Amino acid sequence: MGILSGLRLYTAMARTTLQSRAIYRANFGLSLVFNSIMVTAELIVTLLLVHRVHGILGWNTAQVMLLFGMATTSGGTYRTFLSELSYFDKYLVNGEFDAVLTRPVPAWLAVAGRSVDPDQIGLVIEGMAIVAVSGTILGIFRLDAWLVIGELLAAVVSGTLIWMAMVTALAALGFWTTRVDTLQPMVLYGPQTAATFPLSVYPTDIRMLFYSIFPVAFGTYLPAMVILRKGPGAVMVLVSLFAAAAALALALRFWRFAVRHYTSTGT
Fold first, then answer.
1. Of all helices (H) and strands (E), which one includes residue 226?
2. Rounded CA gap, 212 and 228, in Å?
3. Where would you tag: which of 10, 65, 227, 256 has the fewest CB atoms within 10 A of its CB?
4. Dihedral pair phi/psi, residue 59, rounded to 5°
5. For residue 186, how many C-alpha atoms fall within 13 Å in the half-sphere facing its CB?
6. For residues 58 and 62, what is the distance between their CA atoms, to the nearest angstrom?
7. Does any domain span residue 76?
8. Cα of 65 vs its chain's centroid, Å
9. Where are the beta strands (DSSP E) in the chain?
C-alpha cells in the first residue's frame, strides 16, 4: 500500500472515530480544561526551576518556555492521532490483535486509526499558546516572521514523527514482552520530560541517547536552537525532518518484523 493510499485510509478511519466521539461534547470540554490545568502546572514548575537557578547554560526562562511549548505541541499532536498504540497491551493480552490481522488493511493502520483522541487537542492548543507567548517575549516574530513560523511548523512535524516512531517501536516490543505499559515511563515519559529542557544540561552519555535510541533532540532541541539562532544553521531544520522521518521508517520496519513473528493467542 502506498503512502497516499495509507493516508486516505487512515483519514477515513479517523473521521469515523471522531464522529462517534463528537456526541460527548461535555467530556471534550472537561478534557480541554483538565489538560490546560495540567500543562500550566508543569510549565510553572519548570519555569520556577529555571528562574531559581538564573537560567540554564545560556538558556533563559523565556527560551526554556519556548522549548516546553514546542515539546507540548508535538507531544499533543501524536497523542491525538496515534493514542491507540499507547494502549497496545490490550490487543496482545486479550487476543484482539488476531482480529486486526483478518482485516484487509496493514495492521499498523488498523490499530492507529481505531481511536483518534480529540481530548488531547487541548495539549496542542496549550502548546501553541505557550510558543506564541514565549516567542512574543523573545521577539522572534519581529523579523522574518514567516520564516520563523515555517521553522516552528517543521519542528512540530519533526517532533510528532519522533514520538510516532518511539510509540510504534514500543508497541512492537510488546510482541515479545506482552506488557509495554511498564516500559512507557522510560521510553516515552522520561524522554518527553527531558525534551522540555535544553539537552546540553545532561551528561554526555545520556545526551547521546537523545540523539540515537530516544531521538527527541531532533524534535525540539535542535529546531529550537535554529529558531533562537543559537548556532546551527537553518539546514538543521531539514536534518531534523530527515532524521525524524528515518526514525519512523525504522520503527515501522521493526513493527512489520514483529508482526511477522507474532504468535497468535489462540483466542
1. helix 221-227
2. 23
3. 256
4. -100, 120
5. 8
6. 11
7. yes
8. 17
9. none
Domain carrying residue 164:
3-260
The structure's pTM equals 0.85
For 141-161, how does the pLDDT look when each residue is reduced to its tens digit (9 = 90+)?
Answer: 887 888 999 999 999 999 999
CA 191, 168, 215, 235 torsion-angle sign: negative
- The mean per-residue pLDDT over the stretch 56-69 comes to 89
Radius of gyration of the chain (CA): 19
**Count, residues in the chain:** 267
User: Contact at 8 Å (CB) between 174 and 254?
Assistant: no
What cell numbers appear for 19 in the block? 464522529
Model pLDDT, residue 4: 58
2: number of Cβ within 10 Å: 7
Distance CA 264, CA 267 (A): 8
Structural domain count, the chain: 1
Domain assignment of residue 108, yes or no: yes
Place of cell 547521546: 208
For the CA atoms of 86, 89, 94, 96, the dihedral, rounded to the nearest 10 degrees, stands at 50
Ordered DSSP codes for 166-186: HHHHHHHHHHHHS--TTTHII
Q: Is residue 249 part of a domain?
A: yes
Q: Which residue has the higher pLDDT, 109 or 220?
A: 220
Query: For 167-183, what is each residue's pLDDT tens digit?
Result: 999 989 888 887 777 78
Cα separation, 10 vs 216, in Å, equals 25
- CA 235 to CA 223: how far, in whole Å? 10
Q: Residue 265 domain-assigned?
A: no
pLDDT at 252 > cutoff 80: yes
